[in-house]
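PROTEIN DATA CARD
Card holder: Pyridoxamine 5'-phosphate oxidase
Chain length: 157
Origin: Halioglobus japonicus
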Amino acid sequence: MKTNGPWELADIHNWLGDSRYPLRVSCVGEDGYPRVVSLWYIFRDGKFHCVSHRNSPLVKLLRKSPKVGFEVSPNQPPYCGVRGQGDAALTGEGAADTLLLAIDRYLGGGSQSLARWLMSRVEDEVTITITPGRFFSWDYRYRMDEQPAQRDQVPVT
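Structure generated from the sequence above:
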């Protein structure tokens, strides 16, 4: 596994496992322009596990080309996070389990109407598993004087 940046692979895995930020996935559309889609994810066994509707534009693009870029990071300072590249695989199996885990992770018992709506369409969902090929981490907290005494500590969200 190729890594670059201030965090070790174990730190990257911890960040991805603990973070509640969505996974931004990029792929190339048929017109040659990049597409970026935000997805809820579960990070397990060194891979991202997501769900999307089987007819979504993202799934259609991934069927044609499984190569993706990705990023997990906050939108506000202090800036830190993980980005990289990998390959996506699609399957009809495991979507219900992955969706339930994602609902718990991102909604945590809140917004039961959204959870019910998502589960009502689970038969039409596919599992997207992204296997990273390389990671790049960044952490500008020390530059922004947010946590100067903890420069080497990986953030927990």
